[in-house]
Amino acid sequence: MTLAELSFVEKHLAGWMRDQDHLTPLAQFPSRSFTVQEPYGVVLIMSPWNYPFLLTMEPLIGAIAAGNCCVVKPSAYSPAASAVIRDILAECFPPEHVAVVEGGRAENQALLDQKFDYIFFTGGVEVGKEVMARAAKHLTPVTLELGGKSPCIVDATAKLDLAARRIVFGKLLNCGQTCVAPDYLLVDRRVKDCLLAHIRKWVALQYGSDALDNQGYVRMVNRKHFDRVMGLIDQSKVVLGGRGNPDTLKIQPTVLDNVSPEDAVMQEEIFGPVLPVLTFEDIQEALDFVNARPHPLALYLFSQDKKVRELFLRRTSFGGGCINDTIIHLATSRMPFGGVGSSGMGSYHGKASFDTFSHRKSIVQKSTWLDLPIRYTPYGPVKDKLLRLFLR
After folding, report:
1. Which of these, 149, 171, 201, 188, lies nearest to 327 by C-alpha position?
2. Angle at 370 between CA 367 and CA 373, to 5 degrees
3. Which tens digit of pLDDT belongs to each residue from 203-247?
4. 73-132: pLDDT as tens digits
5. Domains and CATH numbers, the chain
6. Are 311 and 331 in contact (CB under 8 A)?
7. Which of 5, 145, 152, 175 is catalytic?
8. CA 149 to CA 168: how far, in whole Å?
9. Is 179 a known active-site residue?
10. Which stretches within the chain are classed as H helix?
11. Whose CB has fewer CB within 10 Å in the chain, the N or C terminal residue?
12. With contact defined as beta carbons under 8 Å apart, do 210 and 178 qualify?
């Protein structure tokens, strides 16, 4: 995906950089109206640990394409990936163009004390609030790519076997450590048992009878997050999985049934291979449940009913999502990706990245061969009529 983004930007950059002409109002005749793209200046890119290479390089590609100098701060939770990023960028760029700062919280704080021209942050909501507060001291614009509890809704018309296969893929990708992973399952009560049976089948087919023995199954990033996710598992509600291995930091794909909105697993973004299941009686109940909570980064809907699909597209607010699939909406350079409300602000990927890291200047280039006197004093009835005519 990183290489695809780089190729896409290289292919289209010349067109994005061109001045864009705009129609000139009659009141400004004769002149040319156009916009010019310019870089912000020095950009800070703070990236997370869950996809440390991808989520560092993709915004960096856009920032460099727009002409900025960049300070890159990878996550301390993924030091091996940070070292790779440091070595690659040191080979490609002089440090005054792109510099990498490694380290932990102290380095983050020191960087946020500096005045940057733009800050691009990917991570959790609480740290995102701190980044925005620190940026506000310098009136620095920000893009925040955060997360939240992304719902997955399955109604009675869904193709349940296919839905289960795609839900298992999206939930267990990177062991659930994905900002747009389905965080909880909201399913029509009439088809819940059938859907859960299909989910059990596809977990076994994709990861084996016990994922803890699968060498290709991803572990949690560290013991802190292993313990946190294990603490969200209510063993009395486990219908699949539920065990973890603290030595390997792996947690079984886990499904919790009969979950209530008050349960601990519904109070925070899970960021692990645990899927809580809640039910609804009618689709309006599901819609109200989603709308009563902060805007999620993603929403996934499995339905064959066109009216239901339109209902969720028009009546709910979320960063982006899929109909009858999960995750894949972010795997393109042709559409912007970003959050809304508490799941973030701003977007990137492809041209959206170039636009994010560019300031768009509006210019009117006025001709000198004619200077209409209508805008100058003294004003009178004739000028008043002409101005009203021109400014309709």
Report:
1. 171
2. 120
3. 999 999 999 999 999 999 999 999 999 999 999 999 999 999 999
4. 999 999 999 999 999 999 999 999 999 999 999 999 999 999 999 999 999 999 999 999
5. 2-146+340-363 (3.40.605.10), 151-335 (3.40.309.10)
6. no
7. 145
8. 17
9. yes
10. 2-17, 54-65, 79-92, 105-112, 125-136, 160-172, 192-207, 223-230, 283-291, 306-315, 351-356, 381-390
11. C
12. no
3-state helix, strand, coil in the chain (%, to 5): 40, 20, 35
Indicate which residue of 69, 70, 175, 179 is catalytic: 179
Q: What is the DSSP letter of 391?
A: T
pTM over 0.85: yes
The residue assigned the tokens 């959790």 is 124
Catalytic site residue 194? Answer: no
Q: From CA 69, how far away is CA 95, in angstroms rounded?
A: 9
Tokens 């009675």: give the residue. 156
Nearest residue to 336 via CA among 349, 318, 323, 320: 349
